[in-house]
Amino acid sequence: MSDALDIALRLIAVFVVFLVFPLVIGQTEHKVMAHMQGRLGPMYAGGFHGWAQLVADGVKFAQKEDIVPAGADRRIFQLAPAVALLPYLLVLVAIPIGPHNAVGQALDAGIFFVLAVMGVGVLGSLMAGWASANKFSLLGALRTAAQLLAYELPMLLAAASVAMAAGTLSLPGIVEAFHWWWVPWQIVGGVVFFTAGLAELQRPPFDMPVADSEIIFGAYTEYTGLRFALFLLAEYAGIVVLCALTSVLFLGGWHGPFGADGLGWLWTLLKTALLAFGVIWLRVTYPRLREDQLQKLAWTVLIPLALAQIALTGVVKVVISS
């Protein structure tokens, strides 16, 4: 009975994080972009610092009419937002936030699990574009597929490098094996992993699949109301997952200065929050890449860097073991 209660409490905690953290990221993005770009609107809704902007957005989406195009594949069209969102809930179950088994469910092959499930989330965009009966949506879905093929490989290679360094595929095991000198040693892999993750989330400057000046809003063009809001929520949930994974794999997760592992969960959240701020900063700083630039970055820059990181990891491991 106690085991069942422990599992239930862990799942409830993961579900609460899944419901709250993406909304916090969304609200933060409103405020950070408002400060960086001098936007006045998001700073006034509700009074103090525009606290009610997120509430206003939620009410707006709830009030919009739910429309399904006449020529659409209705069942696939309606299922796509859930397929895009739910994989990130499953990934959160396997990400450790602190020592002493502070994880929803520790998996022996956790790194394989999270990367495989994150790839499933992209299917939501493909389903949405295919089912919408709209040529712009289909073009957006095809761009999503091409982007996934290009950036999944460097992401996997970068994750393989840190798993090789730790000698385990378990996410808690990787954090436990972490040493401070891993940061300069694995920094290239961390940059590759984070960049490829942004591209898979279709975040600026990697948002060619939703280029409004070319294909309206890509695979999401025909979506309205709460279904469109679910796609936005999936994007923010993906930011939480990507930043938490980068923190766990390349920044030591719950390890803090002076061996302060008692506050491990706080260090994990702090690192995740700083990376999420970087994601927002990149959105307002860099222009959208062209499709050819986006593919060139993956195949001629990120993949060679990831392979070089694996080679370096192999050399270091041999030196350490000898």
Automatic annotation (TrEMBL):
Q: Which UniProt keywords apply?
A: Cell membrane, Membrane, NAD, Quinone, Translocase, Transmembrane, Transmembrane helix, Ubiquinone
Q: What is its EC number?
A: 7.1.1.-
Q: Where in the cell is it found?
A: Cell membrane; Membrane
Q: Which domain of life is it from?
A: Bacteria
Q: Which InterPro entries match?
A: NADH_UbQ_OxRdtase_su1/FPO
Transmembrane region(s): 7-26, 76-97, 109-132, 153-174, 180-199, 228-252, 264-285, 297-320
Which coarse location class describes where this protein primarily resides?
membrane
Substrates-to-products reaction catalysed: a quinone + NADH + 5 H(+)(in) = a quinol + NAD(+) + 4 H(+)(out)
Q: Does the keyword Transmembrane helix apply?
A: yes
**Which top EC class is given?**
translocase
Q: In what way does this protein cross or attach to the membrane? A: Multi-pass membrane protein
Signal peptide span = none
Biological role: NDH-1 shuttles electrons from NADH, via FMN and iron-sulfur (Fe-S) centers, to quinones in the respiratory chain. The immediate electron acceptor for the enzyme in this species is believed to be ubiquinone. Couples the redox reaction to proton translocation (for every two electrons transferred, four hydrogen ions are translocated across the cytoplasmic membrane), and thus conserves the redox energy in a proton gradient. This subunit may bind ubiquinone.
Protein family = Belongs to the complex I subunit 1 family.
Q: How does it assemble?
A: NDH-1 is composed of 14 different subunits. Subunits NuoA, H, J, K, L, M, N constitute the membrane sector of the complex.
Query: What name appears for this protein in its UniProt entry?
Result: NADH-quinone oxidoreductase subunit H
